[in-house]
Amino acid sequence: MSSAILSVGIDIGTSTTQVIFSRIRMENTAGYFSVPRISIVGKELVYKSPVHTTPLKTASLLDGEGVRRIVEREYRAAGLTPAQLDTGAVIITGESARKENAALITEQLSGFAGEFVVSTAGPDLESIIAGKGSGAFQYSVDHDCAVVNLDIGGGTTNIVLFDSGDIIGKGCFDIGGRLIRLAADYTVTSVSPAAGAVAEAVGVRPVVGQKITPAELGRITDKMADLLAQAIGLAPAEPLLGWVETPNSSELRIIRRAERICFSGGVADCVRSPGETDPLRYGDIGVFLGNSIRARFLPEREKIISASETIRATVVGAGTYTTSLSGSTITCSDGIFPVKNVPVLKLDMEEQQDCLDGSAEKLAQKTEWFLRQSDSRRIVLALPGKADPTYGEIKTLARMIVQVMDRLLPEGEPIIVILEKDIAKALGMAMRSETGGRRKTAAIDGVKVEANDYVDIGRPLMDGLVVPVVVKTLVFG
What we know:
alpha/beta, eight-stranded mixed beta sheet, six-stranded mixed beta sheet
């Protein structure tokens, strides 16, 4: 059995906004005598919009009406109506990822996005999203190697290191193509604090309203390129690298050198294409920065792979799959469901084992990071689970989860856990005991989710025997 759905992806960044429509094909990949598991098996690009300049009211506040007009225009250009769309995602990144902007966009796009995922991606999550969109993640899986992706946009460079599909390093730096803006005669129109610091380090002083020479711009962008090389371990790090690190991003610790390097983002087009004859084509230092990066990374050219997407290395849609779960493996408080569009925080085996051993430090750190990055009050904690755990391990795991969630989740928010292995009944009962009635709890199993997924969980059906679960998976191009 197979079917197809139409999806829209709306990406609203610091500098650019784009809309992409895709057709996602789904099939039941479970056996005849198994619980149905509907999975995404393919996608077809239906329409992609031009890259629009993100409309702003102030330097950091989106023009919600302007964004709505862009989206409305692209629906018409694609020949589609909101009623025809089955699912989708709105991703707000960079400086646009502010709480006020998320609320504004949710309101303005309600008629176009409906119940779709609306996600604000902080610098770390944006790094992961871009690394998946560029193809770096899949390359690391297919070739069983370490791949670093540098997504170089207008205001920041988001970096992520994948090792055979595992995320082992991520970070963000204030290095980008629009940090210095220029008029056609090389008059400086704006300079960011980070660009000013880099310029000072190389003895250049760009001043708004005064001209700057191409040679001086080249010295600034050469230094930026050198800082990026330091960030991924190609050269010793200097103090300036820490100065340009983006606030609220993780400290990027490269624990092994990448075997492959991938560039995405708008500046990546300038890195790949040295033929741009107008260095001020974009009214900024983007072309200069692209040229500097290409020259700095020339010794690493054998490691460089082509991104499948550069400026479009962002979400292209969201797909769904549904799974019915046996009531024998579900434990949930009355009235906890339904819930919609809850972001997934996923632990790996090592982090889960720490909890089983009685240490909640890594769980607490990751939960604090995730709540800060996703700007969400509610999360779903996803665990791989363990085959045949002891009763003591179940009790310890429940205690670690409840301790952390009690401390970090706002009062009244439920503790919801999804597992792959069939231990939800026992874990759910242990969590309920640990809370002492302070919070509602739920544990369900047999569901595989990934980082950056969102879930909807419906009301229990058939007297609580089954729970419908919808996993909204971001599909990257």
